[in-house]
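G.,

No rush on this.
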Amino acid sequence: MTPAAATRPRLLRQVLTIAFVTVGVAAAVVVIWLRRDDVGEALSKLSVLAAVGSFVAGTAASYATMLAWRALLADFGTPLPLTAAGRVFFLGQLGKYLPGSIWPVMAQMELGREYGVRRANSGAAATLMLVLAAVTGTGVAAAILPLASDGLLAEYRWVALAAVALLAFLHPQVQQWLAALAGRLIRRGLALPRSSARGMAIAGLWMMAAWALFGLHLHLLVASTCSCDTSPLLNIGIFALAWVSGFLFVIAPAGAGVREGVLVLGLASVLDPAAALLVALISRVLLTVTDLGLAAAGVLAARRRRGGIGTAAP
């Protein structure tokens, strides 16, 4: 193979990455732009300290989610350094602003190749990450919400039923069976990595930390909006249920609309509908900015690392 031919696949991946990031960023910016008036009104009623604290908590939650995905990837025998993992994961996450849940998975499969990760490994880790998030999120909501809001969980019992069905996909034997079935359908062998109980447990712990931080993100917004006595635990459960509901409604980019609807319903016990909607909108904007910021940080860190390697002494 000539040098020119060898560089074509890499050049194509770079072009596709740039195109994907451009579309993802544009979609995320549109989410903010379409709600700019409501968001401006909401931010004017929020203290700076609460907004900053909520943003930091949301950023930490997103980072914990990346660490859960990284743990699954390491369990498959392809560990990535933090810088590389952050770039692949957070750039891939921009795909969730496009309709359908498949885009983050596809993006991570391609981005991972730059670091020698097989498509099967990165695809399996990304898919398992989504299933694990849905299962743990539903578990958190089911454990917490009955203590404060029986009606909310009853209203969304279908979410719990869907999560129970997804629970089966966490079993390694089921994963291998599905891979064999898919291989027969496409008439091509699919060698998927096998997860371990230890790897799933580590990823699960990181996801539990993420739900706690997402709940803190919401709690700071609620507490700043009203003088009511709101429970951090309740906000953890509400956010987890809202996220899972949005995730399962796959045609909505990043659960747009669905997540906000569940948040408003869940916060009805402590906020009036208008205030609850403002909190939901601020949460959406802050987490969108977080996604954009973490993706940008991943790109800059990777470039800095490459620059350091390029200027190292021979």
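When you get to it, here's the other one too:
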Amino acid sequence: MKSSQIKGSCAPLSPQPEPPCNYLAHPGHFLQCMWPLHMDSMKSSGLRMSLLLITLLFGFCCLITVIAGEVGESSSAKDEAAGGIFTHSTYMDKIYGFLSCLVAVLLYGSNFVPVKKVNTGDGMFFQWISCAAIWVVGLVGDTLFRSSKAHPAAMLGGVIWATGNITSVPVVKCIGLGLGLLLWGASGLLIGWASSRFGLFGLDPEEVSKPVLNYCGAGLCLLSAVIFFFVKSDVQNPTSLEATPILIEERSLSDIPLPSDSWVDTISPKTKRPLGCIIAVLSGFLSGSAFVPMLYIKHHATSNSSMFAGSSQNDLDYCFAQSSGIFIASTVYFTMYCAVMKNRPRIYPRAILPGFLTGIMWGVGTYCWLLANRLLGPVVTFPIVTAGYGLVAALWGIVVFKEVKGLGNVLLFVFASCVVLTGSLLTAFSKI
């Protein structure tokens, strides 16, 4: 074999290529290429603790999802007794609702942790893998709970979310995991809470027993995002040669350019922060609008003149339609990306398993959020979940990944954390 040629599927695009891996002869090499953590990094107590917490969160979330099925069945009986509209009246329903919010917050805030130390390039391959995992979660949930009763138009919500999700990797590369998800959550809070509280986009406005507390809670959650904006983050992206993309077909190294892994790498440091903040806010608006089609269908299901008449009032029934819309849209975007790249997409094998884990965490967390929506109402859950998962992501950034340094930044972070916790509690109490 000539030195200027690469044969096989394991030769990296670098001036000094590593010898190709024989996956069949050495199965351990396959797992090592698929999983990003080296043996040396596994010795780090912070990373081991991160993996342990993620595993515990995922197991706890699976338990809550099973509870969601039981509560959904009992709630269906209440729906029939109340003429098809659930009244959120029982004490246990509120307990399950707030517990579901807690699990959704933990999983949403931690779902990007598995890929924090992984080179995902421009993010297009990673988002397709994670969206495929989301669809798998929706399929399993639909099979277990037999809840395929949603109108197909609910898939539009998944399309909206997937459109915003394609910018997740550039946002994390520009401003870090903590600040990125905080701004994403804050803008999503604004559009999601306002659409439910004031009846935007054709929705029916939702009333709460203590509107003053609700307004104050939502306002404090937004204020916390403004405070977090002034916390300076130190983002360090992985740049190892082992994270370079793998070439599938036989080519000559001299014929292949070696550009940056992502367009973000070509941006000056002064431009990264404002650009990342703008993209995060716009993505958050799309993410916060993802449930609008589902809520619109539910609110018009009782009208005989509507095309959605008779649609399900159970939020969990819409999870598979939502995940299907996500996977379809992400597949379309990835196909367009392959066409733009002239069928030379940047494939990162080390991002496959972490990306799949990210999608599973997001999918199960969404089941919990939809359960909380049903039991508490979106006007309560949106401020709690969107502000809460931003706080969890910020904790990962400051404690584990050291994105926030300096006493002043840490004190500002603690103050903003107190503000967001107060806002979430006020919003929760507004429904009680």
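Strands lie at 5-6, 251-252. Residues 45-249+264-429 form one domain.

Enjoy the weekend,
O.
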